[in-house]
Structure formats: C-alpha cells, structure tokens
Design brief:
The protein is α/β, with parallel strands linked by helices. 35% of the residues lie in helices and 18% in strands. The chain has 24 helices and 20 strands. The structure holds adenosine-5'-diphosphate and magnesium ion (MG). Residues 295-296 line the site of magnesium ion.
Length: 746
C-alpha cells in the first residue's frame, strides 16, 4: 500500500473504506490530515488486563474469564465470569447486540468501567470479545495505556474514530510537515509537529501529553498572532498618515478648553495619542474606560489636535441620541472657541443637509459629529485627519470605516466603555494599540454593592424606601418586561433556553428587545462561540422564573413602596412615553423607575444613587457592571443591590466579585472566566480562527510569547520570504481560509 499523505482521502486509512468515510465527513473529517488533527477531548487510562481480584471501582479495566451464567434480557443483561480465582459480573443496559456467542462456557475479554454494586464488583456496559469454549487465547497484554476519547456524533462513535486514528498512526513517518521555524521550536523546547500529533492521540505518559498540547497550542497562537502582525503591518507600516504636530503651544491651548485638569489616566492616553500623531503613520487606537471615566475629553483632545493642524475631525456615535449628547457636551467645552462645528442629524431637511455637506466638503467645518451616516456616499471631507468612533458597548466596527476623504488615511480612535480583559484585547484587538483610562475623575462618590437572595427582597425594599423618602432616587432593573405579554413570554422562554442569559438587549430596541441583540456583549451569548471553553457555570433553564418589570412594579406599588412615585420604563413603550418617564425621573418627580435593561445606555441622572437588579444571577458580570455604572455618577455615595433569585450558593457566589470591586477590568476578567470568550465577544466576527487546543485563559503566557515571536518575525521579514517563514503561509491559509484576504489585500 502506498504511504498515506496528509491530503489522501480518509477511506484509504486501514479499516475505513468508502462507507465509513461518508460518516467521517459528517464530522468534517475528509482527509488523513483532518483525521490526525482531530484530537481527543480527553484520555482514559486503560489498564492492561488484570485479575478479577484486582478490579478497582472507579477505574476502567480489562479482564478475561469463562462465562458461568448469562441472565436477563437485552434491556438489562448480566453475565457472570470467572478467571479461576475470582468472579465478577458484567452488566449491560439497553444493548441489543452485546456479543454473539455469549453463553455459558464461552471465553470473554471485557473492558469497561468498574463499579461496586451490592458489595460486589461489576463492569458496566463493557466492550466484549467472545471466544468459543476451549479457545487458546494469546497471553494478556499488561501495563496501562492512555486512550483517546473522541467527540463523535450520531453517525460515528468515539471508538470508531479511535480505530481509524490508530490506523493512520500505524505509519512510522506521519505525513505531517513542520510549520514552525526551527529557531522557535528550539527556543521554547517544543516537540516536532509529527511527534506532538502522535502524542496527542496516544500519549506515552501525562508529561508527553502536556508537551504535545503545549506545542500545538503555541502553534495555534503563533499563527493567529502572525496573521495579526501581518495585518497590522499592512494597516500601519505600509500606509501613509498625516503627521500632526502637538506642540507645547497646541497642547496648552487644547487644555485651556477644559474647566478641569486632566487626570493622570487621561494624560497618559493623551500622550500616547500625541505620539501616534507625530509619527506620521495612521493611528489605530482603542480607548477603553468605564462610562464617566473621561474618554470623551480625551477624544476631543485628539480632534482639537487635528484641527490645530488645520485639518478636519469627525466623531461618530452609535445612535442619534448619543451623537446629540456628544455634540451638546462638546458645545460646553468649545463655546468660546473658533472651532467650526456641525451636528449632522438624520432629520435635516434636504436643503439643510446639502448645505452642511457642502460646508464639510469645502473645509468650512472643522468638527463634525454624527452617526454612521457620516459614512454615506454623499459625505465627503476636504481634509479629514481624525476619526473618533464611539462604540459605547459594542465591538466590531474595526474595519476602517470607509470615510471619504482625499489624501492619506485619517487617524482612528475607537472608544469603548466595555472593559476588555487584557487577555482578550490581545487576541481580539491584537492589531490595535490600546489606551486605558483606569481611574475616574476626582470627586465621585463610592458605590457599595450588596449581593442578597430573594428572601431578603422585602427587607431591602423597605430599607431603600426610607432612603428614597429622604430624597435619593433609584433604578430597579428586571430582565423581562411583563408576564401578561404572551409574545414577550414566548420570546423570553426561548431566550432562557440553553446558554442565553443576556435576556434583554442592552439597547433600547422596542418590542423586539427580548430577542438577544446582535451588538452587545450581553447578547452575543447566543452566538456560537468560536473559541472553545469549558461549559459556563451560569445557571440554567430550571432556575426560578424571571421576574418582569411589570410584576415588580405592581408588587412594589402595593407593598413596600406604596405612596412613592414610581415610573415604569421598558423598550416596548412608545418613544414619547419613555421620554416622559425619563424626564420626570431626571426632574426628580419620580422616586424610582422600574425598568428593563433599557437604562443601560443613555440615561444619565446624577441624583440616582440606588441600583437594584432583580434576577441579577441571570446577567453576565459585564452587563451588571454597565448597569451599575448608571449610579455613582455624582459626588454622593451610591448603593447597588444585586438580588440573586437562583437557589443555592452558586448564584450568589458568582456575583460576589461585583461586591469586591468596581474595577471594570477585573470584572471583565471574571466574566471571561465564567462565560468564556466566545460568549463575551462574537470572536468569529473579528475573523479569529477556532482554537482547537489553545485556551487563551489558561495558556495566556504562551499566547504572550507567541505574540512576541510573531511580531518579531514580521518586523524582520514582513513578506515571509525567508524559507523557514515561507512555509508558514500555507498553514495561515488553512487556518484563516478566505479571511486571509484581510491580510493579503493591499
Ligand atoms: P466618558 O466619555 O468616558 O463616559 P466623559 O468624558 O463624558 O466620560 O466624562 C464624564 C464626566 O466627567 C463629564 O461630566 C466630564 O466633564 C467629567 N470629567 C472628565 N474628565 C474630568 C477631569 N479630568 N476632571 C473632572 N471632571 C472630568
Ligand atoms: Mg461618554
């Protein structure tokens, strides 16, 4: 038989054949290479044959013996065997074809899980080889071995996969080529690719398995980071940008616009940005910081730097309301300045719009604020040098927005209020620079967070009532709108199935809101995570019913908050009704609002100091953090109460990190651990590959090394022309498929 190649169809593997090959195809395994890279998800230690007397409950073992008796029917079948010294029972449930020939006197070799039952050892659902009486069997294999357990499906079992893998491994030289440059294998003491693959399937020992896993994880990280490094090279090093000068005089004039001194954290971000602008290469920077940390001020600094250099700047917000809010804020800072500014609203008349566009194109406007509409075809800038994208809680607009301008690429600054753990920032935004504002401006109150159980509900509400009567204001956030709303209920039932717990999207989306939205971190949960992660610990569909805003509103009005003015706020109200409630709350006419997560974005009430979240255990930590950010905005201290409705201590325990810290990065990190990266972010959307072996949380330092190595190589050999680098290109292509165009395209 000719040796198998990596691209040989799997049917040529010993024992596979065309029919089985079709079933392998259902797992995406078509070639020998696919099979070799289909790794077991765990290993079982299988002992060699042992004496029945040595069977240990809890292990998997193989024994041989003579059948003394067979009893029961296929639903529950039992055979007693004897090896000359000791007896044990083999037991099967619902197995129609245990083994032809299984009868008294036959010889069997049985392998399976050992359990203790009524003081006797039994082997449950064993695999069986049956031999006629008096067969002379070869002497038993001794010694333990690790065997892979593979993820199968309805078409194909783990043991079938294992047999095929063993067939493919039977060749002395595996058809597997090295991908990594030899210097890196040496530097990190990595086994060869072929060795690692072999050890993944049939590890000689735990240590070899770990080495193999480490090697393959490194390789995945390395290729992923290599793609990032190449992309970054294309974006940054190859592109011409506008050199902007941030002289001490420019700096002084910009700072004079703000009625306060910048915080240390803001100053650091400003320095990083100024450095980019001076470099002459286009900036691609992510600016992270909690709501209220002062990002807008930093972004405005960047815009004013461009304007001071005689160029234009643009700020894009995700919604019209936020664009207006930005524009209003900016107005207060720029009131007495000569900066010519415009808000490009959606509602402009045709004439007004034409005038604005003409002014922008003629360079008569310095600073434009708007929504994504700034990307429309008819918007052209004379000399746009700075684009700020406010993503609020959303990720993903990382493709360079295709703004129409002449000349070199503008500088980009993307603002996000969702802290992205360092671990993920590196992978998801690996090709961006990141500035972090990690401290709040001075003069903010503290927020104390308490986690309570449902049994404390009344006590909490009575306590809060007193504070409300004394002049504070509260939000009560619930996951659902109302129970009586059948459609809502159906949607929510669907939403609670499986892994979803974003519940209501964090953006106000009208009656559609219970459908997980596409664009918030809370709702990405129901997307297929593309980076594998252990199952999420968040409770599950059977936990107690979710409470709705209407329910809570009624219960509070009839009970502990009788006599208070309370509003109800949710996404299926008409905009005018919503507006009215928000205004009454802002004006201090309402003690509290009971709301769905619509409050997460956009409502800004400095006097609101109490946040109560019902069913808090059903929200992701990052979303809780965003919700909590609604209070603590003024100088007064605030209180946040998280009510866990789930039974048991698990639910409350998961929330405890909220009580320990208000540091958004720590919370995001914890959220990442609880829910996994695929749930937190739609990683696939960012063109990240699926990691089969690497785990960005547990293998983080390996990821860091791989990143460093990849960026070093691209710095030395950006086109991967040297032979040890060139051979990585096919591997990149395989990992990224068509997405590699991102990297290749000029
Ligand atoms: P973000 O955009 O991160 O939500 P903003 O830039 O809107 O934050 O700032 C939030 C509030 O804090 C604003 O009212 C702003 O005027 C104020 N602020 C920002 N920076 C400072 C500072 N250095 N000192 C005092 N107040 C500040
Ligand atoms: Mg803001």
């Amino acid at each position: 038989m000719p040796p198998l190649r990596a691209d040989s169809p799997i049917q040529y593997v010993k024992g596979v054949g065309p029919r089985l090959a079709e079933r392998f195809a259902t797992l995406g395994i078509h070639t020998v290479g696919d099979l070799l890279e289909y790794y077991p998800f765990r290993h079982e230690v299988e002992q060699g044959e042992i004496d029945i007397a040595d069977l240990q409950p809890g292990t998997t073992a193989t024994v041989r013996g003579e059948v003394l008796r067979v009893s029961g029917r296929w639903q529950s079948l039992k055979a007693e065997i004897y090896d000359g010294t000791e007896k044990c029972t083999l037991r099967w449930f619902n197995q129609r074809h245990v083994g032809p020939g299984l009868r008294t006197g036959a010889l069997v070799i049985a392998t399976g899980k050992v359990q203790e039952f009524n003081d006797r050892v039994e082997i449950i659902q064993p695999r069986l080889q049956v031999f006629p009486p008096d067969t002379v069997l070869a002497s038993p294999e001794k010694g333990s071995q690790r065997v892979g357990v593979y993820r199968g499906n309805a078409e194909i079992k783990s043991s079938t996969i294992r047999r095929a893998v063993h067939g493919a491994l039977a060749q002395r030289h595996l058809p597997v080529e090295e991908i990594l440059p030899p210097e890196l294998c040496k530097k990190h003491d990595l086994p060869t690719r072929a060795d690692a693959i072999r050890q993944m399937h049939v590890p000689a020992a735990e240590k070899q398995l770990e080495r193999a896993r480490r090697r393959l994880a490194y390789e995945e990280f390395f290729l992923m980071e290599l793609a990032m490094a190449l992309r970054r090279y294309k974006l940054v090093s190859l592109q011409r940008g506008r050199k902007l000068h941030v002289t001490p005089e420019v700096d002084r004039r910009i700072r004079a616009r703000f009625p306060f001194a910048l915080t240390d954290a803001q100053n650091k971000a400003v320095r990083e940005i100024a450095h980019d602008l001076e470099s002459g290469r286009p900036m691609t920077r992510l600016l992270q910081g909690d709501v209220g940390s002062g990002k807008t001020v930093v972004a405005l600094y960047a815009c004013l730097a461009a304007i001071a250099n005689g160029r234009q700047a643009a700020i894009m917000a995700p919604t019209e309301i936020l664009a207006q809010q930005h524009f209003g804020n900016i107005e207060t800072y720029l009131e007495v300045s000569r900066v010519r500014r415009a808000l490009l609203r959606g509602k402009l008349s045709r004439k007004e719009r034409a005038e604005s566009l003409a002014a922008i194109e003629a360079g008569e406007i310095d600073l434009v604020v708007g929504t994504q509409a700034l990307l429309e075809k008819d918007v052209a800038f004379k000399d746009l040098a700075m684009v700020v994208v406010d993503e609020q809680h959303k990720f993903g607009v990382l493709q360079r927005a295709n703004i129409r301008t002449k000349g070199p690429l503008p500088h980009y600054l993307v603002m996000t209020a969702t802290p992205i753990p360092r671990t993920l920032a590196m992978t998801v935004f690996g090709d961006l620079d990141v500035s972090i504002i990690d401290a709040m401006p001075p003069g903010r109150g503290q927020t104390i967070t308490k986690v309570v159980t449902r049994s404390q509900w009344k006590t909490v509400m009575e306590y809060v009532c007193k504070r409300l009567e004394a002049g504070e204001q509260a939000y009560v956030v619930c996951p659902l709108i109302g129970e009586d709303d059948e459609a809502t209920k159906r949607r929510s039932d669907r939403a609670t199935e499986g892994r979803d717990r974003g519940i209501e999207g964090s953006r106000d989306q009208g009656p559609q809101q219970l459908r997980p939205t596409r664009d918030t971190q809370s709702s990405i949960v129901n997307r297929q995570p593309s980076i594998r992660n252990p199952q999420s610990p968040i409770p599950n569909p059977q936990s107690p019913r979710l409470v709705s805003a209407k329910q809570v509103y009624d219960r509070l009005g009839k009970g502990p908050w009788r006599g208070l003015n309370v509003g109800l706020l949710h996404g299926s109200l008409k905009p005018a009704e919503k507006q009215e409630t928000v205004e009454a709350f802002v004006a201090g006419k309402l003690h509290a609002v009971v709301a769905t997560t619509v409050v997460e974005v956009g409502v800004d009430v400095a006097n609101a100091t109490i946040m109560i979240i019902e069913n808090a255990d059903r929200f992701g930590l990052s979303q809780l953090h965003q919700l909590r950010g609604r209070v603590g905005r003024g100088s007064k201290d605030s209180l946040c109460v998280l009510i866990a409705h789930g039974r048991g201590e698990k639910a409350a325990e998961r929330l405890s990190v909220m009580a320990e810290t208000t540091d958004g990065f720590r919370i995001a990190e914890a959220d990442l651990r609880q829910r996994g990266p695929g749930e937190l972010f739609g990683t696939r959307q960012h063109g990240l590959p699926e990691l089969r072996v690497g785990d960005i949380l547990n293998d983080f330092s390996l990821l860091e090394q791989a990143r460093q190595d990849a960026f070093d190589i691209v710095a030395r050999d950006p086109k991967l022309e040297q032979p040890p680098h060139a051979r990585m290109i096919p591997a990149l292509r395989k990992m990224f498929g068509t997405r590699l165009a991102l990297i290749d395209a000029g």
